Amino acid sequence: MAANENKPFAKAEMLIRKPVKEVFDAFVNPEVITKFWFTHSSGPLVAGKKVEWTWSMFNLTVPVFVKSVTPDKEIVMEWGNGEDITLVTWIFKPLAGKGTFVSVVNEGFKGDAAKVLAAVRDSTEGFTIVLAGAKAYLELGVQLNLVADKFPEGHH
Which domains does the chain have, with CATH numbers? Predict the structure, then answer.
């Protein structure tokens, strides 16, 4: 699923030098994704199910509704609360001899121009940090704590 180029969207992409099955699993499996993004998940990402993701260091929980999952290829989800619910599409593309190219697009931002611009900027930065953390963890086994370190004085 490609973003509508005429609407504001956030996009982040990264090559992760691991097989697509391992990379995809890292994003649907709470035991792995909590090593590089959030601290707790109420369950794995399964199509048609709702889960909650928690960042305990910020006392923040976000609902996630999983619209579809195509194993080793794509995850489509909605996340957020009320007016701030947006659509997130993850694409996992195997690259022969290189690993997996992960692309994430976040779209459906609402509000005035300033609010939408801030949301696109924050989402682009956030998903870039997530992909960098996933790369470090999956390739090297290192937990960089990038999300917590982005807000050392707490999320606001």
Answer: 9-150 (3.30.530.20)
